[in-house]
Amino acid sequence: MSEYSDKELLDLLHNGDNPDYAFNLLVRKYQRKLYYTIRRIIIDHDDTNDVLQNTFIKAWKAIGNFREESQLFTWLYRIATNESITFLNKNKRNLHQSIDEHFNEPSTGENGESSETGKEIQEKLQKAILTLPEKQRIVFNMKYFDELKYEEMAVVLETSVGALKASYHHAVKKIEDYLTTN
Q1: Confidence check: pLDDT of 46 > 90
Q2: Tell me: domain 116-182, CATH 1.10.10.10, correct?
């Protein structure tokens, strides 16, 4: 299967003989990227799949209203982020679960010093991220993992660049504090 451009996909969706097939191509193109975006917010694999499915259902229903003022991925990313936030708000249990339920405690050597592997260090970073307030966590994930520019984040989250920079700064500070004390 050759990779279709966003313009070609939108043309197939709006003017093609088989919009279902065109949407399936869109899903194939973006589902992996969106899965990991949602997974960093939701954490749980099964819940992530549910939110991803809801994201594509919403996109399918609204694709006729897509005005092409932003890139197709930015539009989908925004839907995925909003669906993730909606899911978290409906399921506050995720916010109250012990972070340790998601990870094992890092191992220590014979003399009690940390003998952390790369995987354990990554888990420690994820634990630190999970301690952040929801907005800071989302902003941190977008900047650090997805490498979005503040301007792109502002479009997705409908907020100012200054507010995003402040949220990111506070998130980084809290993560640094967590990593030095734990």
Answers
A1: yes
A2: yes
